[in-house]
């Protein structure tokens, strides 16, 4: 079956209009947080979830067949499917959208919308709960007009958004500072992508403004060097430079060739290598000193970047 949404019981001339969600925005007090509504509908707990008041939440769910109405939620919900193939059907009034949950597609439930969902079998899904204020902030920082209405999607092909969301979902556990910074950057990138590809009008972004000033770059590096992880956030880095988060990320990469997250990851890896080579500290101690939640998380991050476990690398270098 095609993964492109197919609308049934709808005249051909309404195909474009029905990609928009027909919805009435309710007062915030009358909508549920997305994670609460998803737990009610899916009748299970997420495999894992990371939440940040500043940029929203990311959750990984595995659930079985579902036949229920999703009630209006306070935030936009963007989904993608890392594995498996499953039929999706969403009914809203007299229209029905059919799609296929599979790798490389996305499903979007705009905030405030409600629809009946029929899913006949198991689904493995990553979900982003994105506050509308994040879309407004990213649009403002990119010198755009107010964001257009987010479109309803059901199993819609979009490999770029899918890969971004899967990457953001990978950063749910590990080093708290690294993961939080990575999620902030990825959430802003996802918001940018949604504005460009999933609203009523294409977004036009202003070009990059060039690199950071020497003073602003020095301050950013000092903060990233800090041992206090509470100082390492995209909002704090951007504030120090007197820029929006959107423009700070572009300017930092222009100056260093790396995103703030990639720079911090490289710095932590260099710290780990020095400690492994020059001290007898255990791998567990090094992982804790660098802010990783466990030795396993540290070893996985180290191996991803070097191809070796910390212990193997230490033996080879001594």
Give a written overview of the molecule.
The N and C termini lie far apart (57 Å). The strands form two sheets. This protein has a six-stranded antiparallel β-sheet with strand order 2-3-10-5-8-11, sandwiched between helices. It contains eleven helices and eleven strands. It has helices spanning 34-42, 132-141, 159-170, 176-197, 214-225, 234-241, 245-256, 260-278, 283-289, 295-306, 310-317; strands at residues 6-8, 48-52, 56-63, 66-70, 76-80, 86-92, 95-101, 105-109, 115-119, 123-130, 153-157. By secondary structure, it is an alpha+beta fold. It folds into three domains: 6-197, Sandwich (Jelly Rolls), CATH 2.60.120.10; 214-257, Arc Repressor Mutant, subunit A (Orthogonal Bundle); 268-317, Homeodomain-like (Arc Repressor Mutant, subunit A). The longest helix is centred in the middle third of the chain and has 22 residues, at 176-197. The radius of gyration is 22 Å and the shape is globular.
